[in-house]
Amino acid sequence: MVVALALNAGARWAVALGVAFAPNVWRLGPPSPAFELPADLAARGRRLETQVGPPQATLVSWLLEPSAQPARGSIVLLHGVRQDRRSLLGAGQAFADAGYRSILVDLRGHGESSGTFLTYGAVETHDLSQLLDGLSSAGVELGPVGVYGFSYGAAVAIDLGARDRRVAAVVAVAPFASLRAVLADYRTQYLPAPLNRIPDSWFDLALGDASWLASFDPEQSSPLRSIASSTTHQLLIHGTADTQVPLRHSQALFDVAGPLAELLAIPGATHHSLPNQVIQQRALDWFARWLGPERSQL
Exposed/middle/buried for 290, CB within 10 Å: 0-12, 13-18, 19+? Predict the structure, then answer.
């Protein structure tokens, strides 16, 4: 009995640690030297370090300026979980080429940014508001602000749009509706079939352990809750064949978002096979509509 209880507690804490700890916690040594802007972008880009918190962390970002000044606005780009800012460089370049300032961020605990825990938007949104504050204080004219995010970054983007009134438009690609809901999908996707017989209550306890470790409320880390009260224009993009974060997450978000949201379902696309050029063009159309000078008339 004692052994069984110990194994049960150990397994539950293993799940909790997997949910709570940021990817950089497990990294040995310094970041890869590949965290450099390509040579063709170096002339209009620079690396930023921003102190944020609490809890204290350093956010590392790339700032890509458009060739024509002044910029039409600023777009913050947020990557997926266990990815980093490099994964969205193509989108960042496309936005900069279209006249926007692109701000590609390593979310806390990812890439070159420090930070021990993931809080699924609870702390990350405060980090990003502080980043925007810092840019404004340094004399950067942000103009109208948009946010573009993928998966984990899409969920954070929705939360940021609801909490920071500077954000006028969000493009959320494959977002999850809530941490609790996406963990249930991950169980089905990644755990062996026998382990899926473990009751939901056991995983709820593991999620409670994770939130205790990282000091956040999982009920507050809910894009579903955020989008329902948001005044930001939201474009939700999702693949119909996504099994990692199924389409029903975006459908649930759309159902409570009201008239400020649109949902674009990409037939046959999975979580990692979304057509980048199509998505980037739809994102640019959305930002042109809601970040442009005519936005107040729409």
Answer: buried
179, 226, 261, 277 alpha-carbon torsion, rounded to 10°: -50
Domain boundaries, the chain: 2-25+40-293
Tokens, residue 158: 């929705």
- Name the 3-class secondary structure at 44: helix
Report the distance separating Cα 88 and Cα 180, nearest Å: 26
Say if domain 2-25+40-293 classifies as CATH 3.40.50.2020.
no
State what percent of residues in the chain have pLDDT above 70.
90
Residue among 126, 123, 81, 85 at smallest CA distance from 104:
85
Q: Residue 5's pLDDT is what?
A: 43
Report which of 29, 16, 27 is spatially closest to residue 84, judged by C-alpha positions.
27
**CB of 242 within 8 A of CB of 250?**
no
64 phi and psi angles, rounded to 5 deg: -105, 120
Q: What is the pLDDT of residues 43-93, one digit of tens each?
A: 899 999 999 999 999 999 999 999 888 999 999 999 999 999 999 999 999
263 sits in which H/E element: strand 261-266
The alpha carbon torsion through 99, 105, 111, 117 (nearest 10 deg) reads: -160
What residues are paired with 152 via a beta bridge? none
Which residues, at least 6 apart from 1, have a Cβ–Cβ distance to it below 8 Å? Answer: none
The rounded distance, in Å, linking the Cα atoms of 209 and 197 is: 20
pLDDT attached to residue 112:
93
pLDDT tens track for 233-269: 999 999 999 999 999 999 999 999 999 999 999 999 9
For Cα atoms 49, 32, 29, give the angle at the middle one, nearest 5 degrees: 90
Q: Is the pLDDT of residue 188 over 80?
A: no
Reduced to 3 states, what is the DSSP secondary structure of residue 262?
A: strand
